[in-house]
């Protein structure tokens, strides 16, 4: 009954949702209709995403939002008594960390395996897969169109080039987004060259690292910085904003997808996992299945400006099309390698004085 | 009374546990934490210590100059607007320091409205002043929000006695500067020291400002060791250094408070003949300026900036009133539960010390009070460590569940952090009841709990109400523990404001931030009312 109404009121998108849900519902029927969610996603449009799931399945979502590290620390302390069913994190390194710390349950879901490409999920083992990427974001380089030639900043390596002295703005090196990027650089360049590269970044900074990604973008637009590193969805959010200040920011900046001639642009993965001690494992798997349904994947793209992990999702996000119209080459590194580098990278940052 | 003794022991243990766990972390010394600590001490540890100390130094200077000067102005002199200014100087107490930080960053940064318009108006280039998000910026922000501690204590100390003594000194022929430096300053010194100690404890425990500004303080280092290096033991071991600093500050505070009691105990009733010195002309103007500046910087300006941000964002999107009602309700509820419990426990502890001031009872009360000076992050580490251990020892127990799926863990953390606030208020209430009252009651056959219920409680309602309010507001402003320990679907005003500001959506963060200020105003206004009555 409910699904019929839903279809009537929501047109073709409703059909997509209903068909996705019919595939996943049986697993959830045996349990109390509740799902306990720990989420590091902090985006306004997610609310609607969750509400649609509840409307269609009748499964109520209880939610705690915190940052990735806080969630992992909390899960560890709760141990087997944890109430969490699904964990959503916004960084692949953290997902990997949760996996090796044994915080996630292995999931066997043909639907998830089919929907999520192999390099965007945990390694498949006989007992199942520990986590699945749900959306990706590119760590792009922004530059001041008035001062900087895009060819001067078309790779991550060039950010350490003496030509960019006094230009670079970047958030704290210890932020997961940067730790992941630097961990990937360590794989590509090796330890000594990475440390030299980090020193080069330090020398090139226009100001000491502070603020978030949007701060860096605004820094470029105001002329304080010549180049900056930021995640793509922050750029897209500004592009789609209708306030005059944000429009002015977008006017002045250019976007580069770095390393197109070599290993590709570093991608940051947001993903989910079922908690090891989930009390509603059926609901948890249904929820993950829902998140890779075309309906939910469109939310990631149109609502929060992320790239869906599922291929062939029709996107109507003007900002994403404007940024990467013809597509781009993205980096293909196993997240486990990047994850294992995290502590090494942090110690390098401490040595070179990168905050 | 074995049962009450047992309850008291249990409560004391629970409240002291997180701090004790941090100390016990040294027993867990292993190769990995040794490596982490060694690497830290080779690279960033000296920086952490250096910037924490520098921050403490600048904040001390800031709060002393703003707090004691304004206190001296409103007690020793009379000028137009003195009455209003003397209570308005307390207003910044209502402003969480992190809200001031959000406001100033947005307004003053390179890409902010002020610099942008100045650059385009005068055709200037580059940064017009150093970035707010720096050590000095944090020092200014913290000074602006914490100076009322110094102001309040200094004002009380001076108002008690200074006018008479200043009058006497004047009659003996001492000039103004001599009167200030030889009479008023020595009189106010213990109060200033006590106020500075309070401000420093808040500075060391600060998480909101330093994490938003990206300053590498000791607390930031603990956070990094715990969450990035994933080594809880190393984090706990680092925390002991912080505890050491806090202990030093506490020592300073205790010594100052002892002097303070000595000073105020000699204070006799107000003399009606001594009057504050009347100021006129530019002298009066200067006094008004000196009192107005802290209020403008610590309250009016941040309020105006946030209000403007709220207005701007409401133009482009509807405000989430329904969610907002939830946040308010959660904040109020958590604050109320904690405040009632905190006052009950504080009364119990203070009563037991009053009945039998043995070393052990005084020591355990002090130990419990230590939590106030411990950063929320450290409390969370100290609280999760034993729970994780219990849960792994007995996997079928539901300790971990009760801690976070209900408000128990969060209220526990709040109590550890803020019981000292309730204790301070309740103990000062007890200090005002003379011991001869107890003796008379005992001679009339009333002792133990009925002494409390029939004699102490009726005399303590005001002190208890003050404690209730202060804890309530402190809980509503608390950040780090709330972020990690809150149960499902309980976003609070502080958490939402922090998350939105961190996600660089300041316009949306303005609504919860302003609500926090509004709530914080309640106890401040009540406090200023009692002050006005007493003068």
What descriptors fit this protein?
heterodimer; A: 355 residues; alpha/beta; D-Maltodextrin-Binding Protein, domain 2; 2 domains; 10-stranded mixed β-sheet; 10 strands; globular; B: 535 residues; mainly alpha; MetI-like fold; two-stranded parallel sheet; 1% strand
Architecture overview:
The complex is a heterodimer of chains A (355) and B (535). Chain A has helices at 2-28, 46-57, 68-78, 92-100, 110-115, 176-189, 191-204, 213-222, 232-240, 244-252, 281-291, 294-303, 318-323, 335-340, 342-352; strands at residues 34-39, 60-65, 86-89, 104-105, 132-144, 168-169, 227-231, 253-256, 267-275, 307-308. In chain A, strands 1, 2, 3, 4, 5, 6, 7, 8, 9 and 10 form a ten-stranded mixed beta sheet that branches. Chain A has 355 residues and is an alpha/beta fold. In chain A, helix 1 packs across helix 11 (281-291) and helix 6 (176-189) packs across helix 7 (191-204). Chain A contains 15 helices and ten strands. Chain A starts with a helix and ends with a helix. Chain A has two domains: 2-135 and 273-315, D-Maltodextrin-Binding Protein, domain 2, CATH 3.40.190.10; 137-266 and 322-352, D-Maltodextrin-Binding Protein, domain 2. Helices cover 46% and strands 15% of the residues of chain A. In chain A, strand 1, helix 2 and strand 2 form a beta-alpha-beta unit. The radius of gyration of chain A is 21 Å and the shape is globular. Chain B is mostly helical. Chain B has a domain at 44-211 and 248-312: MetI-like fold, CATH 1.10.3720. Chain B has 22 helices and two strands. Chain B has helices at 2-24, 31-42, 45-76, 82-88, 97-108, 113-122, 135-171, 176-205, 208-213, 218-228, 232-265, 281-316, 321-355, 359-369, 376-393, 399-405, 408-431, 435-443, 448-477, 480-485, 493-502, 506-534, and strands at 77-78, 277-278. Chain B has a two-stranded parallel ribbon with strand order 1-2. The longest helix of chain B is centred in the N-terminal third of the chain and has 37 residues, at 135-171. Chain B is globular and about 75 Å long. The two termini of chain B are 44 Å apart. Chains A and B meet through strand 2, helix 3, helix 8 and helix 15 of A and helix 10, helix 15, helix 16 and helix 20 of B.
